[in-house]
Amino acid sequence: MVQAIRGMRDVLPEEGRRWRTVEHILESVLHAYAYEEVHLPLLEFTELFSRGVGEATDIVEKEMYSLADRDGDSLTLRPEGTAGCVRVLQQHGLLFNQTQRVFYRGPMFRYERPQKGRYRQFYQMGAEAFGMAGPDVDAELLAMTAAFWGALGIESSVRLEINTLGSSESRASYREALVAYLSRYESELDEDSQRRLVTNPLRILDSKVERTRELLSGAPVLGDFMDAQGSTHFEGLCGMLETLGIDYEVNPQLVRGLDYYNLTVFEWITSELGAQGTICGGGRYDGLVEQLGGRPTPGAGFALGLERVLLLYEQRNLPTRPAADVYVAVMSPAEQVYALKAADRLRLSVPELRIRVHAGGGKLKNQLRKADQCGASWAAIIGADEAAAGAITLKQLKTGEQATLPIDEAAGRLRPSAENAH
After folding, report:
1. How far is CA 354 from CA 70, 340, 413, in A?
2. Would you say the C-alpha torsion 357, 362, 364, 368 has a positive or negative sign?
3. pLDDT digits (tens, 9 = 90+) for 197-245
4. In sequence order, what are the residues at sequence separation of 6 or more whose Cβ sits closer than 8 angstroms to the Cβ of residue 153?
């Protein structure tokens, strides 16, 4: 039997229901902040990511799924969403001299070692804000992510770390000093850090290798190279977070893994998922639009890993919404068409309900057993008398109470169940 590709994960119905619940909560918060959804293609020209994400990043160097199409062009399955989001808005004239607040969601692809909450096909939800240069939009993005965790009930499981990378000029000065320092210990660095010393030295600050971290304890500190722009922006952000009551820690070694970041960077971290603790990360990327061929446009955003957020949400042990709220059962095949029509009328009257119509025949007892199996609270039983009267018999499966009602009255009886389902 053919198996799934390593790192490409199947999502089965029960988990899919929890997944939709989490997405719905996140989407509700995004809409409350008036962010609008954009849909990004799965495939982009490889150049978009090599220019936008950075040729020296791990993603571009060794993690992308790329292929040549029939015209010989190099295409890549998107490994992240920000570069594609910039391309979409720039191509359609939605950036210059405008402000935009948008979000996207869907699968991303990276060739990484699969582990709990981390797959080669993984799902992200991201938000991006363009045309606003001040720390106020950074604070809004962090307030929105904090609202996510509150709405999901996982706020006690996460903490916020922030840092500033300064302007491109101060970052370049720091990069030069860091390379000079680490070059003295090159032979003692781990293999990845030796490679990054040439290609992307700031990423060495993220190393988890013990000896490399010991060496970094004596390295230059980015804050010592900060210019007035970077300091003012960061101080403004910290003040806003304190006013908003959002707790944070300043982590001077937080740099994020993508080349396009400047000024603010942040991560929401948990200690409940093992070594892979980051569930959401982002920051500012004021030079990215220009880097991809547009006019200078400030930008900031974040992306969260849905699989990791779902793992934290599942730890709350909340009851999962059932596959169906109402199970329509028929006394004989003669009532099957009426059952389909009655179910459609209920769906129109109470669209929040999940209504499943029995198919395949069988005794009423077996149909009610299937209603229990799918978690339904109600059975809608239809026999010849109900069909003739334009009615259904509603049975509450937990208590056994039942009543025969016209379809519109039955919809009114079911409406409170729909409200409780959310």
Report:
1. 45, 14, 15
2. negative
3. 877 787 788 777 888 888 888 888 877 888 888 889 999 999 999 999 9
4. 313, 316, 318
Rounded CA Rg of the chain: 27
Say if residue 22 is exposed, middle or buried (CB neighbours under 10 Å; 0-12, 13-18, 19+).
Answer: buried
pTM: 0.86
Q: Where are the beta strands (DSSP E) in 32-158?
A: 36-37, 43-45, 66-68, 74-77, 100-109, 121-130
Would you list the DSSP string of 188-231? Answer: GS-HHHHHHHHH-GGGGGG---HHHHHHHTTS--GGGG--HHHH
DSSP 35: -
User: 355 forms bridges with which residues in the sheet?
Assistant: 326
**Across-strand partners of 162?**
250, 266
Encoding tokens for residue 269?
């971290």
Residues 6+ apart with CB under 8 A from 130: 89, 95, 98, 99, 100, 101, 289, 297, 298, 299
Per DSSP, the residues of 341-404 read HHHHHHHHH-TTS-EEE--S---HHHHHHHHHHTT-SEEEEE-HHHHHHTEEEEEETTT--EEE
Q: Is 419 exposed, middle or buried (0-12, 13-18, 19+ CB in 10 A)?
A: exposed
- Residue that the structure tokens 């210990």 belong to: 185
Query: Which amino acid, 313?
Result: Y
Question: If we measure between CA atoms, which residue out of 367, 410, 418 comes closest to residue 391?
Answer: 410
- Coil, helix or strand for 279? strand
Query: Nearest-CA neighbor of 182 among 170, 196, 169, 168?
Result: 196
Name the token pair of 260. 């396009």
The angle subtended at Cα 9 by Cα 4 and Cα 10, nearest 5°, is 80
Are the C-beta atoms of residues 287 and 260 closer than 8 Å to each other?
yes
Q: How many CB atoms lie within 10 A of CB 296?
A: 11
d(CA 81, CA 104): 8
Q: Measure the CA–CA gap between 89 and 95, rounded to whole angstroms.
A: 6
Q: How far is CA 95 from CA 98, 133, 283, in A?
A: 5, 13, 18
For residue range 119-170, what is the model confidence (pLDDT) as tens digits?
A: 899 999 999 999 999 999 999 999 999 999 999 999 999 999 999 988 778 8
